[in-house]
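Need a sequence for this fold. Nothing fancy.
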């Protein structure tokens, strides 16, 4: 079976990267959340933020992981030479941006502590461990997970492609994910590998053999798309209604039913967002998708700390999200375009070769095929 994606499917994944990045920014700039499981105690502001950024936007990371797995394995032949080549590529496109942004975050953190005359009770070794394993910029956890996944990719491929046990392995991971069971230990505050990224990266591996399924989803009728989207929204709304203060990020603040609703909304939402992205394959969105990785890298600390302080002085801190989120999103994309135009080499070094206007495979470093370039 062909592993080649159509031009339309590749463009759809670019738009997915754009939409998912906006979701991630929204998640990190959420300014108020319900603090009680009783919905009648929550404000409309809290419920709206929780619905949009605590429920709907949560499809972003699984989609990123799925796309990363799909584009990694579709060009992997399973050989040692292919593995070494991909390891070198991902070191350039993932590890180096991770270390650069991590260094900036740590330097900023140190400067702030010095200016505020706070003690820095960390040795050089501890600072090095912080830089490599858990820098202050929270969004970098996903890039660290990606590097772990790339290192163990041959094992994932062997398990997923096994004629007898492949489906069993994926089903087991899915069950564990639905139950929010994390298999791996915590290292410096982050899981060595988050089960969610492992599951959907592995599903991306499986999807290499099911390319026709993706094409069929993208070409679904408008009625099917509308029904899938409405189902996604209903599942997210039910979860918020049932448990407004839901949280599974290094905690277990949830019940069985609201957890099932949350995980179900993610699965349906991934399908719905891909279908929607298929219909948003406009030149502007496709070109702008090349800036998404830059936005992902820079939107968090130290930028969020500065923006939050300013926004809190201009508006009620509980509603600052509605000011900060759109301004940061637009501002970061604009900064990406300016930076890429003024200093393309510096921009390419920081982002691992991803440039606005280039058609890139989601978070992959592989450049577009000529046919797609011509369509921009």
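Here you go.
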């Amino acid at each position: 079976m062909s592993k080649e994606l159509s031009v339309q499917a590749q463009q759809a994944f670019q738009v997915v990267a754009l939409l998912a990045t906006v979701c991630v920014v929204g998640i990190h700039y959420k300014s108020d959340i319900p603090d009680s499981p009783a919905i009648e105690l929550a404000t409309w502001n809290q419920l709206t933020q929780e619905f949009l950024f605590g429920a709907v936007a949560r499809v972003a990371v699984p989609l990123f992981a799925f796309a990363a797995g799909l584009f990694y394995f579709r060009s992997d032949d399973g050989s040692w030479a292919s593995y070494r080549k991909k390891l070198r590529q991902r070191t350039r496109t993932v590890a180096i941006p991770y270390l650069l942004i991590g260094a900036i975050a740590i330097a900023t953190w140190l400067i702030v502590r010095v200016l505020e005359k706070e003690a820095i009770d960390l040795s050089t070794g501890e600072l090095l461990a912080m830089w490599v394993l858990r820098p202050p910029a929270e969004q970098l956890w996903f890039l660290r997970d990606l590097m772990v996944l790339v290192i163990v990719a041959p094992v994932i491929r062997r398990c997923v492609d096994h004629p007898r046990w492949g489906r069993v392995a994926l089903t087991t991971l899915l069950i564990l994910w639905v139950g929010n069971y994390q298999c791996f230990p915590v290292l410096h505050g982050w899981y060595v590998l988050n089960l969610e990224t492992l599951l959907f990266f592995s599903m991306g591996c499986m999807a290499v053999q099911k390319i026709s399924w993706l094409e069929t989803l993208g070409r679904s009728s408008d009625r099917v798309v509308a029904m899938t989207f409405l189902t996604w929204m209903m599942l997210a709304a039910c979860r918020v209604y049932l448990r407004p203060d839901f949280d599974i990020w290094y905690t277990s603040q949830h019940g069985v039913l609201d957890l099932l609703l949350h995980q179900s909304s993610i699965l349906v939402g991934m399908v719905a967002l891909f279908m929607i992205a298929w219909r948003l394959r406009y030149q502007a969105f496709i070109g702008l998708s090349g800036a998404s990785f830059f936005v992902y890298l820079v939107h968090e600390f130290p930028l969020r700390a500065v923006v939050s302080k300013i926004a809190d002085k201009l508006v009620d801190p509980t509603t600052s999200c509605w000011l900060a989120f759109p301004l940061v999103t637009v501002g970061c994309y604009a900064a990406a375009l300016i930076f890429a135009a003024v200093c393309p080499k510096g921009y390419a070094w920081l982002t691992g070769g991803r440039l606005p206007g280039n058609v890139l495979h989601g978070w992959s470093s592989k450049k577009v095929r000529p046919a797609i370039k011509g369509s921009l």
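For context: The radius of gyration is 21 Å.
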